[in-house]
Amino acid sequence: MPGVPHVHVPSQTSSWFRKILVVVKQTAYEEYSQLRLRGKAPKALRWKRLEHRYKSHKSCVNDLKGILQHHNVEFECINRVELDRQHLANVDLVVSVGGDGTALSAAHFLDHGTIPLLGINSDPITESDMDCKKKTDERRSHGALCMCTSRNMADGIAKILGGGGKIEERARIQCTVKSTFSETKLVPALNDLLIANPSPASVSRFRMGWLDDVDTSQNPDPAGTSRPLSSFWERATVQYSQYGTITRFGGKAYDMRNSLNVWSSGIWVSTHTGSTAAIAAAGGMPMNDNSKELQYLIREHMIEKTSDGKLAKGMDKGFFNENEQMHLRWNSQKGKIFVDGPHMTHDLELGDEIMINPKAPPLLLYVRD
């Protein structure tokens, strides 16, 4: 059960940071225990195993509190499921305790890119776990986004509180969804986006293209006089694209090029951070650590022919840079955008338009030396 937030206010501190927010994972043991109270827990659960993982995680959290108190730094602990923007007031460092999922959830609230994130893997997988043919515990985390583990966090935290540590800027994905009466900017994605039909057995239909800026500052009418911009005069003065219309995001006009009608199982879009995760398993390529580009891959694409009669094989995966913007027009009745996994989602309806680019503020992430 999520507990009361723990707050420690020191009388005096020499830390590099004024206030630290500690975001704590809610373990599977805690979640299933709540279900058991309502008689809804699965019968096949291995409670001893879950409890052992829970105790390892709690031990790491308690050790971390002791380390921060030893350094006399102000901090507050909050459960991951209760995290809200109000908890970031006056905070200049966020520490996630759990695994990669907890780090990703915390990163979604750091959308301005001004507060650094330190990930601690509370129950890391060991070499013996990876070498074992029969996995003894599949719930341990690899912690790719975590600088420290429960075993070495004392030294790592001491270094960071003293102003040291290695920090990197990690590129993130900006995704904007335009519906009939609204426009929504989603939280920045550190790993990837999956855009697909909610049912894995259903086809994901969408039209994919690329956005070009349109100069609408000059829109003379046939009589030679200047008129205010309107949809009629846009269509009269701006050349039609393959879509046959001009779209707008944030009040700015765009034309679409190189459009492709897609029937598939959805599309992955990833940063270099996420390029070794799900998109790699689907056939994508690992990216350079310093890359600012985004990679996309259409899943199980039923490839169509382009206007010249050739198959569009070269368009089902690729890369685009910060000067390019992907555009999707959702053509299925239902759809969903999954941001860095299953916890953060956005529902889509027929006709929704999506703009994707790497222009989100980068995340400041502490990494291993």
Structure description:
By secondary structure, the chain is of the alpha+beta class. The protein has seven helices and 21 strands. It has helices at residues 28-37, 47-70, 100-108, 127-131, 153-161, 231-237, 278-281, and strands at 6-8, 19-24, 74-79, 93-98, 117-121, 148-149, 166-170, 174-178, 183-185, 192-196, 204-213, 247-249, 252-264, 267-270, 294-298, 317-320, 326-330, 334-339, 344-349, 353-357, 363-367. It has a seven-stranded antiparallel β-sheet with strand order 9-8-20-17-11-13-12, with no helix packed on it. A hairpin with a 2-residue loop joins strand 12 (247-249) and strand 13 (252-264). It is globular and about 70 Å long.
Structural descriptors:
globular, alpha+beta, 6-stranded mixed sheet
Radius of gyration computed on alpha carbons: 24 Å
For the report, how would you describe the main beta sheet?
7 strands, antiparallel
Classify the helix fraction into a percent range.
10-25%
The count of helical stretches stands at: 7
Query: What does the oligomeric state look like here?
Result: single chain
- Secondary-structure element pattern, one letter each: EEHHEEHEHEHEEEEEHEEEHEEEEEEE
Spans of 5+ residues with little confidence (pLDDT < 50)? 226-230, 232-243
Estimate the strand proportion: 25-35%
Q: Please list the strands of the largest sheet in the order they lie side by side.
A: 9-8-20-17-11-13-12
Question: What is the overall shape?
Answer: globular
Spatial gap, N to C terminus: 36 Å
The chain-level structural class is alpha+beta
The total strand number stands at: 21
Compute the average pLDDT.
Answer: 86
